[in-house]
Amino acid sequence: MQNSLLNTHVTTIDGEATTLEKYAGKVLLIVNVASRCGLTSQYEQLENIHKAWADRGFVVLGFPCNQFMGQEPGSEEEIKTYCANTWGVTFPMFSKIDVNGEARHPLYQKTDSRCAKRQSRRTRAVFTNEW
């Protein structure tokens, strides 16, 4: 459990240090988001998904990121206000993080390494017919 995603230290959009342990047993959609992106309207879709499936244990977690053409330059307070007032976001939002590079947040390090492992196994299976 030491390497579990649930043990990962994160900071809420309000500045509270926490882990993802309170989401144990839930299905998580971890999304990097940006307020000045061509896909910003997806906040509304993410909120709709969150509301539709929350009672079944599905949770959207939003992690703002400014690494893609500077599309999330605001402060946490600006991001929180924008998301709530413009898109009605109620799903949990966290502080701005890096999702790529040397300063990549540990959450994305863990998800990337797990996806890479699964992908490599799948690729091996495809090429060797080991289904």
TrEMBL record:
Active site positions: C37
Gene Ontology MF: a single term: peroxidase activity
GO terms for biological process, alphabetical: cellular response to oxidative stress
Tree of life domain: Bacteria
Keyword Methyltransferase tagged: no
Spans through the membrane: none
Keywords: Oxidoreductase, Peroxidase
Pfam families (alphabetical): GSHPx
Similarity field: Belongs to the glutathione peroxidase family.
Protein name (record): Glutathione peroxidase
Organism: Salmonella enterica subsp. arizonae
